[in-house]
Design goal:
With 235 residues, this protein is α/β, with parallel strands linked by helices. The protein has a single domain, classed as Aldolase class I (TIM Barrel, Alpha-Beta Barrel), CATH 3.20.20. The protein is 44% helix and 17% strand. It has 9 helices and 8 strands. Strands 1-2-3-4-5-6-7-8 form an 8-stranded parallel β-barrel, surrounded by 6 helices. It is globular and about 45 Å long.
């Protein structure tokens, strides 16, 4: 499929998030609800997204014992949730519990099953940081190892940097989805991201989804910024 643009609603207020939803709902984007929005004003924001009829991603990064993650996923799945995330470092049993819970709850509600994506190695982590975490090898090696666990747990795909996408697709096939954060249009600052790429780089690598936050949400014309990235993806 064509690379899909996911706009991160990483903003401090409900009013600002709702303005972004209004500005971008007519454009072919998906929204990402992460910690800041979910914990700060998640209930009204999710109601607003459901009213707009737009698909969204819950970037909850669950990482706990399998039973707790199973219960958490069942509580999160609802109409409009297209994707949700867990940490691959939680292990295969935990990821399988998340996939099972998503399928169960979707069947109960009569809605499409959301895809469970497993976080591999955060794009804020540089190669030299891995030793501190006790992980041997580079980011790519660790990401592929964790992706194998996610595939065996029947996850829909993983969250990884653009640098890992080609190997991911080579090992696990094109149907195993790759969502890439750390995307910055050419000329944008990197912020706290250490392993970044442009939208064109992500498209060329075969990414299924790219997540863009600040370059869109902090722009005076977020719709124009999103349209420019979409044009880059389609070039």
């Amino acid at each position: 499929m064509a690379t899909r643009l996911v706009v991160a609603l990483d903003v401090p207020t409900l009013e600002r998030a709702e303005r972004l939803v209004d500005a971008l709902s007519g454009i072919d984007v998906m929204f990402k609800v992460g910690y800041e929005a979910l914990y700060g004003f998640g209930v009204p924001l999710i109601a607003r997204l459901e009213a707009a009829g737009t698909a969204y991603m819950l970037d909850v990064k669950l990482h706990d014992i399998p039973r707790t993650v199973h219960a958490g996923v069942k509580a999160l799945v609802r109409p409009g949730v297209a994707l949700l995330t867990v940490h691959a470092l939680g292990g295969g049993e935990m990821m399988a519990a998340a996939v099972e819970a998503a399928a169960e709850r979707a069947a109960e509600l009569g809605i499409p099953e959301p895809g469970v994506l497993a976080i591999t190695i955060l794009t804020s982590i540089a190669p030299e940081d891995l030793n501190e975490l006790g992980l041997m090898g580079g980011p790519g090696e660790n990401a592929i190892r964790l992706a194998a666990l996610a595939r065996d747990a029947r996850a829909a795909g993983v969250v990884c940097s653009v640098g890992e996408v080609a190997d991911l697709k080579n090992f696990f096939g094109t149907e195993f989805a790759a969502l890439c954060p750390g995307i910055r249009p050419a000329g944008s600052g990197h912020g706290d991201q250490k392993r970044v790429a442009t939208p064109a780089d992500a498209r060329a690598a075969g990414a299924d989804y790219i997540v863009v936050g600040r370059p869109i949400v902090e722009d005076a014309d977020p719709a124009g910024a999103a349209q420019a990235i979409l044009a880059d993806l389609r070039a």
